[in-house]
């Protein structure tokens, strides 16, 4: 039996509480204006902290985005893991991945959603960032590997490249389009179908 995790106390608890206030205030401002237009002054006023406190916890606005991305990826990966633990096929898994990515938009709003997705293409992304740091990519690689080994997908496909192309293509599509919900749904269905055709056994 695992010992219960001790809650932070004293200064550490205060530091974490302040960080949470700054993060929540920044996300609220980003949702309203987008990251580029966000006013750090408005963030620190809403959080009730000094300007230096913001930069102590988040050296730049992009660091807030990276933290939000990490949290949302963990949430999505947990849901995806629950889905693939039950009987399923590759088309169902890829369609589920799309729905889970779209669920982020509902949680954070359309403006901030595009900013988060845009991080994947940012030249300022941390140089030590690896694909294995992104749990959804890891899980989609595992799912395509499973499908290939089960004969659902072509034996010659590379699961890593197939997963990265699928997810980055999805992120790019969602970042650059603003069609009606019905049009976007049809476009995403077509995107998944096209991806699956490229992986079909020959």
Describe this structure in words.
- Pfam families: TetR_N.
- It comes from Nocardia fusca.
- InterPro entries: Homeodomain-like_sf, HTH-type_TetR-like_transc_reg, HTH_TetR.
- By secondary structure, the protein is mainly alpha-helical.
- It is 70% helix and 0% strand.
- Helix 4 packs antiparallel against helix 5 and helix 4 runs parallel beside helix 7.
- It is elongated and about 60 Å long.
- 23% of the residues are buried.
- The mean pLDDT is 91.
Largest sheet: none
Radius of gyration: 19 Å
Number of strands: 0
Task: Estimate percent helicity.
Answer: 55-70%
Number of helices: 9
Anisotropy-based shape = elongated
Order of helices and strands: HHHHHHHHH
- Quote the average pLDDT: 91
The fraction of residues assigned to DSSP E strands is: under 5%
Helix/strand-derived category reads: mainly alpha
- N-C termini distance: 50 Å
Q: Give the low-pLDDT segments.
A: none
Domain HTH tetR-type: 16-76
Organism: Nocardia fusca
Keywords: DNA-binding, Transcription, Transcription regulation
Pfam families: TetR_N
Compact overview of the structure:
By secondary structure, the chain is mainly α. The protein is built from 9 helices and no strands. Keywords: DNA-binding, Transcription, Transcription regulation.
């Amino acid at each position: 039996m695992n010992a219960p995790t001790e809650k932070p106390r004293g200064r550490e608890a205060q530091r974490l509480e302040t960080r949470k206030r700054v993060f929540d205030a920044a996300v609220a401002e980003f949702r309203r204006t987008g990251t580029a237009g966000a006013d750090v002054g408005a963030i620190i006023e809403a959080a009730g902290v000094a300007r230096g406190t913001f930069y102590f916890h988040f050296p730049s606005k992009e660091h807030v985005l990276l933290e939000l991305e990490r949290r949302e990826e963990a949430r999505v990966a947990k849901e995806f893991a629950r889905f693939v633990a039950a009987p399923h096929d590759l088309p169902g898994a890829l369609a589920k991945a799309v729905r889970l990515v779209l669920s982020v938009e509902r949680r954070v709003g359309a403006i901030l959603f595009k900013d988060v997705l845009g991080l994947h293409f940012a030249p300022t992304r941390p140089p030590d960032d690896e694909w294995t740091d992104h749990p959804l990519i890891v899980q989609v690689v595992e799912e395509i590997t499973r499908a290939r080994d089960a004969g659902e997908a072509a034996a010659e496909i590379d699961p890593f490249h197939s997963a990265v192309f699928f997810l980055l293509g999805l992120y790019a599509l969602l970042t650059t389009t603003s069609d009606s919900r019905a049009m976007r749904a049809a476009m995403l269905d077509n995107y998944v179908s096209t991806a699956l055709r490229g992986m079909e056994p020959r």
